[in-house]
Amino acid sequence: MRQSKSITSEFWRHPDLPFIEARLVTDGRTLCYAPHSHATFSIGAITNGTCTYFNRDARQQISAGSIVLMNPGDVHACNPVDALAWAYVMLYVDSAWLGRLQQQLGFTHDAAFKRLNCIYSQDKQLHAELLKLHRCLVGNEPISLKQHATEQFFTLMLERLHSPDESDQALHTRLEQAAAFIRKHCADALSVEDICLAAGLSASYLTREFKQHYGMTPHTYLIDQRVQLARQLIREGHALADVATQAGFADQAHFQRTFKHLLAATPGHYQSHSGTNR
Q1: How buried is 266 (Cβ within 10 angstroms: 0-12 exposed, 13-18 middle, 19+ buried)?
Q2: CA distance 66 to 134
Q3: Can you list the pairs that 135-143 forms with residues at least 24 positions away whose Cβ atoms lie under 8 Å?
Q4: Is residue 186 pLDDT above 90, yes or no?
Q5: Which ranges constitute the DSSP H helices of the chain?
Q6: Would you state the pLDDT for residue 230?
Q7: Distance between CA 50 and CA 260 in Å, rounded?
Q8: Are the C-beta atoms of 43 and 94 separated by less than 8 Å?
């Protein structure tokens, strides 16, 4: 992995393991996240200090030794408490890959990822194993060992924490249609009217119910999805000069500002930590 002058934040990726990404933050006082979501399943270990954890309608203070879990699409944020130091390691894993593992382990009947109920844990073994996996990923071990260690960790996670989110069955179909439409067309110049037409909802109902369900308005969700698309394009090697346009941003300044606001990292910082160890 490339090293920067400051190790406040480091990303790790590897082209031979496209289903997983890692981030290390050694001093969270310098980072502040707006509510956002990820297309991936995310699990993190708090390694130092205390932070405020928000996930959909849950909000609490958590400390070193805690684990946080975010299903794909969950609106969340972790931020410092009174500017006190805190640190964490986060893993982002492709939900399709994790869904296949759920099926292989017998937790589900098909390979579609099933959301987990658990969004917070103090499982000491899982915390220790997550940090062990991170050290393996960023180290010089063979790629085959990194893959095996990843499979072992997420097998352990599912065995200890798997509890399907039954509320999925009650999700409002039209709200899901609205969210899916936004995700599919996030790079386009969407209007509220476009989203309403796709979901068959009135503007007032859509705005009110969408915010209640997802924790953000349809417009904010659209911006969030543009940032997720930009993140994907950067991982794929696209030039930053092109990413803003491809992801639907009006200009570079808006792209840079919004990306940093949601991910607490500039596009350039994210691009520079591409996980070059082999």
Answers
A1: middle
A2: 16
A3: 137/12, 137/14, 137/17, 137/20, 137/22, 138/1, 138/10, 138/12, 138/22, 138/24, 138/275, 138/277, 139/277, 140/277, 143/14, 143/16, 143/17, 143/278
A4: yes
A5: 95-104, 124-138, 143-161, 173-184, 192-199, 203-214, 218-235, 240-246, 252-263, 267-272
A6: 96
A7: 22
A8: no
pLDDT tens for 113-169 read: 999 989 999 999 999 999 999 999 999 999 999 999 999 999 999 988 876 555 444
Token pair 């997802």: residue: 214
1-54 confidence digits (pLDDT tens): 444 445 588 999 999 999 999 999 988 777 767 788 889 999 999 999 988 888
Cα–Cα distance for residue pair 115/71, rounded to 1 Å: 6
Instruction: Enter the pTM of the model.
Output: 0.67
Q: Looking up tokens 């009006």, which residue turns up?
A: 250
Query: What domains, with CATH codes, occur in the chain?
Result: 9-167 (2.60.120.280), 171-272 (1.10.10.60)
Q: How far apart are CA 71 and CA 247, in angstroms?
A: 23
Average pLDDT, the chain: 87
Q: Could you give the CA distance from residue 124 to residue 184 in angstroms, rounded to a whole number?
A: 39
Backbone angles phi, psi at 35, to 5 degrees: -55, 130
Lowest-pLDDT choice from 98-102, 131-135, 170-174, 242-246: 170-174
